[in-house]
Specification:
Blueprint: H1 11-14, H2 24-40, H3 43-53, H4 64-76, H5 85-101
Helix pairs in contact: 2-3, 2-5, 3-4, 4-5
Length: about 150
């Protein structure tokens, strides 16, 4: 039997709509490998950091911002004869950006059509505040709201 073209390439390449967002464990593994590279400064740990970050550069669901952070790991996770604080700080910063930049963005969930979001017209207590204009502060509070026509 012959398989459909593209199926042998894996789910991320066969059909981009079927790709899964990388797990937080995967992103954390990249971060920890980069931190190891900064601390240990040897070929094995730095190569592992680059090896983990590089395939994610081609992931179809990751944002450009996330890929920039991954590229920072790929570029900075290299050994150096002088394991300076400046080098370690650059690698640590790149590692931290991976986790903070690559978090999946949650999309708002559509409601059942009852109207506005939190505090909107459909929510309990939504709409304009009771008691006229200006909210619940007493008149003349110094905030300019409900100043009583001054």
């Amino acid at each position: 039997m012959l398989a459909a073209p593209g199926l042998a390439m894996g789910p991320a390449r066969a059909n981009d709509s079927m790709a899964l967002y990388p797990s937080t464990e995967t992103l954390r593994e990249v971060q920890l490998a980069a931190l190891d590279c900064g601390r240990e400064n040897n070929t094995a740990t730095c190569g592992r950091a680059r090896q983990l970050a590089d395939p994610l550069m081609d992931h179809p669901l990751l944002s450009g911002f996330c890929k920039d952070a991954l590229w920072g790991v790929v570029q900075k996770a290299v050994t150096d004869p002088d394991n300076s604080l400046k080098r370690r700080d650059a690698i640590d910063a790149a590692a931290d950006r991976v986790v903070s930049s690559c978090r999946p963005v949650s999309k708002p969930v559509a409601r059942d059509g009852t109207g506005g979001g939190p505090g909107g017209p459909a929510a309990a207590g939504g709409g304009p505040p009771a008691g006229g204009a200006g909210g619940t502060r007493p008149s003349g509070s110094g905030f300019g709201f409900g100043s009583g026509g001054r």
